[in-house]
C-alpha cells in the first residue's frame, strides 16, 4: 500500500513537471513567433524600399529619398511606438525613390498632423513636431491618446 502511494506521488510529480515544462516551451515559442513576424515585416519593408530605389535609380537624375526615419514620443511608457512608426512609414512609402525636389514637405506635414489612428484598441492622434528632408525623410511626432466619451 505504501508503495502505491509513492508511485502515485512520483507520477503526479512527473505530470506536473511535464505541464510546467510545456507551459515554458509554449511561452518561448510564442516569443519566437512574434520575433519572426516582426522580422518578416522588416524584410518586406526593406524589399519594397529596394524595389523603389532601383526603379527611381533608372528614372531620375538628381538625389532621391532613400529612407524614412520616424521618431515618436508616446504619452504612455508601456506603449510600443514601433507600430506607430510602421503606420507612418506605410503612409509615406511612396516617397521612397522620389526626387527630393519633387516632394512637398507641407503636404506630408498636413497628411500626418492631427491624424487619428488606432493601436491596440486605443485611439491616438499625431502631432507633427518637424519634417526634415534630405536623402532621408525625418519625421518627429508626438502621440496623444483620444479619450472617447459616450454621448448622453
What is this entry, summarized?
It contains three helices and four strands; from the N terminus they run αβααβββ. The chain has 152 residues and is an alpha+beta fold.
Question: Can you describe this structure?
Answer:
This protein is of the alpha+beta class. The protein has two domains: 1-59; 63-145, no CATH class. 51% of the residues lie in helices and 22% in strands. The protein contains three helices and four strands, in the order αβααβββ. The chain has helices spanning 2-59, 81-91, 105-112, and strands at residues 67-73, 116-119, 122-133, 136-145. 10% of the residues are buried.
SSE series: HEHHEEE
**Approximately how much beta-strand content do the residues carry?**
15-25%
Sheet with the most strands, sense and barrel status: 4 strands, mixed
Radius of gyration: 25 Å
Q: How is the quaternary structure best described? A: single chain
Q: For the terminal residues, how far apart are their CA atoms?
A: 70 Å
Strand adjacency order, main sheet: 1-4-3-2
Task: Bin the helical content.
Answer: 40-55%
Structural class: alpha+beta
- Uncertain segments are none
The averaged pLDDT comes out at 86
Our count of domains comes out at 2
The total count of helices amounts to: 3
Amino acid at each position: 500500500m505504501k508503495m502505491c502511494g509513492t508511485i502515485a506521488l512520483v507520477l503526479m510529480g512527473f505530470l506536473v513537471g511535464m505541464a510546467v515544462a510545456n507551459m515554458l516551451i509554449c511561452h518561448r515559442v510564442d516569443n519566437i513567433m512574434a520575433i519572426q513576424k516582426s522580422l518578416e515585416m522588416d524584410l518586406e519593408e526593406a524589399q519594397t524600399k529596394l524595389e523603389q530605389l532601383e526603379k527611381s535609380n533608372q528614372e531620375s537624375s538628381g538625389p532621391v529619398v532613400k529612407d524614412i526615419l520616424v521618431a515618436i514620443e508616446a504619452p504612455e511608457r508601456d506603449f510600443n511606438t514601433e507600430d506607430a512608426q510602421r503606420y507612418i512609414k506605410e503612409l509615406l512609402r511612396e516617397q521612397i525613390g522620389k526626387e527630393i525636389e519633387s516632394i512637398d514637405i507641407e503636404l506630408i506635414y498636413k497628411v500626418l498632423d492631427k491624424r487619428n489612428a488606432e493601436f491596440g484598441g486605443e485611439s491616438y492622434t499625431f502631432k507633427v513636431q518637424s519634417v526634415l528632408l534630405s536623402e532621408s525623410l525625418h519625421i518627429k511626432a508626438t502621440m496623444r491618446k483620444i479619450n472617447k466619451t459616450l454621448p448622453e
